[in-house]
Hints:
Helix content of chain B: 55-70%
CATH architecture of chain A: Beta Barrel
Number of helices of chain A: 1
Number of strands of chain B: 0
Distance between the termini of chain B: 17 Å
Mean pLDDT of chain A: 88
Radius of gyration of chain B: 12 Å
Strand content of chain B: under 5%
Largest interface: A-B, 37 and 22 residues
Radius of gyration of chain A: 20 Å
Distance between the termini of chain A: 39 Å
Oligomer: heterodimer
Largest sheet of chain B: none
Number of helices of chain B: 4
Low-confidence stretches of chain B: none
Low-confidence stretches of chain A: 1-24
Strand order of the largest sheet of chain A: 1-2-3-4-5-6-7-8-9-10-11-12
Amino acid sequence: MHSRTTFLSLCVIALTFSPHFCFSGARHFTFLYETTTSAPGSIELENWVTFRTGNSHDQRFSELDFRHEFEFGITDRLQLSVYVADWRYQTGVADRASGFAYSASAVEAIYNLTNPVVDPIGISIYQEVKVGDRLVESESKLIVQRNFGPLIIAYNATLEAVWEGSGLEDQEGEFQQALGASYELSPSFSAGLEMLHEFVFPKWDTNEHRQNFFIGPNVSVRSGRWFATVTALAQATQTADEPDWQVRTIVGFGF
Amino acid sequence: MTYEVVHAGARAHIDESTLREGRTLFVSRCIECHTLPIVSRYDAVAWPWLVNDMSARAGLKPAERDAVVAYILAVRAQTNK
């Protein structure tokens, strides 16, 4: 009798919680990184799609960026990633032909320093190097996170340097701050908000810069070995040549 | 690690180093995918099943999985006293 009760209890638990409790290393945000790194020995494929649209020189432009990332857990604190191919489809973008184009490939490392649950604040550092067609890019991040029960608060400070052109003579810099909150409504579903504040320096040697601010909601669902997270951001500033809207989706599969 | 948790583990013949390992893994591996649930949310029968179900994805070896379960059950036992 006792074993039958136990068996029935397990069946109820299985039916109720099975889809929620076997997640892949899930992302709660798409424009921010979290301090957590993948488990040692784990491999995950993440597919990114980012849609951007806005006005430039009185012309509507639209862009779809695709990214395919393989993520490897190396140690308890170190994670390495390879962006196999970033590519895009675009229309109406100034100085670029419409259609499909290969963009770049990249490698990335994230090293975790402190834990967002047991330490006062979770911290990780991030470095990415991207190389493409007449393009070299370096991106460094400080990732900060704190978990308050089911609430995750994350902050990223990013410094980006880009060299472009046939002789890599065009240089651009960007400092970006991102803040996000995600509340876990159930183990398989989270919702929250992301904010992005960008300072773009079109040339390093002048003081010229522009600022953009984006804000919008995010949702994340997880089940079994996959997750999907979507964020829609609207531009709160009125900066020309920058997207009015951007929507990013990341779908991940754990192996 | 409180005395009560260590004592609860000892009653189940779990030594302190195993409980410490379980705690370390619980607060680091589990948050790769979700926030940490309150241990009283599920009963002592459900926890081993739940952890086992997620252990492959969290990269937990059998001994590590057992340490996580032992830690959770020890905390749960002293919480429910």
